[in-house]
Amino acid sequence: MATEEVKIDTTCVFCDIIAERAPATIVRAWPETIAITPIDPVTPGHVLVIPHTHVTDVAESPEVSARTMARAAELAAEHPAVNIITSRGKPATQSVFHLHLHVVPRVPGDGLLLPWTSRP
């Protein structure tokens, strides 16, 4: 893997967490990525995987996105069923504009509906 310059956005909450200027429960840390517990996890074990370098979303840097997905896949391997979800843009439900992947463990009957799940 090539080493890249880490970009920081001083107005970004995830950059603040990475720089240890904001609190977070860090579940795992790698040289280029961290996994944290979100403020409001939707299932037990739900984590966010966040690259150290500030990229707005999955499309901005395929290299950063691929490394972040590799770390999410490591965490997903620890569960028998899991969703890995990221969003690009407000219409796609992105609310923090720093790439992050949700690793959401699933169990039968957990009742969690995804945004694109048909509702009765």
From TrEMBL:
<feature type="short sequence motif" description="Histidine triad motif">
    <location>
        <begin position="98"/>
        <end position="102"/>
    </location>
</feature>
<dbReference type="InterPro" id="IPR036265">
    <property type="entry name" value="HIT-like_sf"/>
</dbReference>
<dbReference type="Pfam" id="PF01230">
    <property type="entry name" value="HIT"/>
</dbReference>
<dbReference type="GO" id="GO:0009117">
    <property type="term" value="P:nucleotide metabolic process"/>
</dbReference>
<feature type="active site" description="Tele-AMP-histidine intermediate">
    <location>
        <position position="100"/>
    </location>
</feature>
<feature type="domain" description="HIT">
    <location>
        <begin position="13"/>
        <end position="113"/>
    </location>
</feature>
<dbReference type="GO" id="GO:0003824">
    <property type="term" value="F:catalytic activity"/>
</dbReference>
<dbReference type="InterPro" id="IPR001310">
    <property type="entry name" value="Histidine_triad_HIT"/>
</dbReference>
<dbReference type="InterPro" id="IPR011146">
    <property type="entry name" value="HIT-like"/>
</dbReference>
<protein>
    <recommendedName>
        <fullName>HIT domain-containing protein</fullName>
    </recommendedName>
</protein>
